[in-house]
Amino acid sequence: MLHLRVIAPADLRDPVLNVLRDEPGVAHVVVHTGAAIDPAGDEITADIAREAANDVVERLKSLDVQHFGAITLEPLDTVLSSAAHHAEDVADGDAADAVIWDELISRTREESRLNATFLMFLCIACLLAAVGVVTDSAVTVVGAMVVGPEFGPLAALAVALVQRKLSLARRAGAALLIGFPLAMIVTAIATLGFEALGWVQLSTVSELTQVDFIFQVGPFSLVVALLAGAAGMLSLVSSKSAALVGVFISVTTVPAAGFAVVAATVGDWAVAGNSVLQLAVNLVGITAAGVLVLAVYRRTRARRAVTGG
């Protein structure tokens, strides 16, 4: 269940209530007349079955509630109510398969923001990957995979392509196109410093045995990227965040960037090129899989709307 709060001017009170009354997946409708101060109006709350939330939000938006007031949603972990259980039973569809597009756009927009936190995480992840390469440590490389924040912009790019949100696409593209080069430059400076201090004795990276999978590009590189991208988007849509950890460990995006930097500093340009290719394959594959998953959800919803469930 989700908790809906609507702030709306008094003249929209009845239209908003009509939207909530017409949806069988809604329970616990409460009206606080004149409770809102800024913006002025009524506060209307309700609990909604997740599978009904997208339709309710779309109908509220058609009333321009978001312009004159506000619409907020938050998940409810525990609801003890026969009315709520009935609302979930009669709502069309299944909660795990429900896509709330505004929620997804909001979440991916936040995760794709190019800010100091995003850049620091990406730099740290690339540095960890570089350390994993120079020490031939698969464990350290896996740590870099988990720390890397790049899935957020990739998911946002997929959502932007499906929903045709140009502003979101620009935001996600900026995070990737600025973030990765900057993180690789920082990693290159650090790696050259390690080499100057004598901590790195590598003359080539092609002889590494524990982390050589990073630059070995093949058909399964794309297969893994597609599967990871699909799993990641499914986890976002269904709010099952635990699956994202598996996605982070599966794909070699940040490790490929770190490997490319280390290979370049020792003059192993062939391996550096393969690492960059691995990075590109993973970025494209994850985005393409996210678009495909969202397109399937969108088509399924449209088919249900035509057939009436």
TrEMBL record:
UniProt keyword Transmembrane, yes or no: yes
Alphabetical list of Pfam families matching this protein: DUF389
InterPro entries: DUF389 (IPR005240)
Ranges that cross the membrane: 114-135, 141-162, 174-194, 214-237, 244-264, 276-297
Alphabetical UniProt keywords: Membrane, Transmembrane, Transmembrane helix
PANTHER family assigned to the protein according to its UniProt record, in alphabetical order: AT15442P-RELATED
Protein name: DUF389 domain-containing protein
Organism for this UniProt entry: [Mycobacterium] fortunisiensis
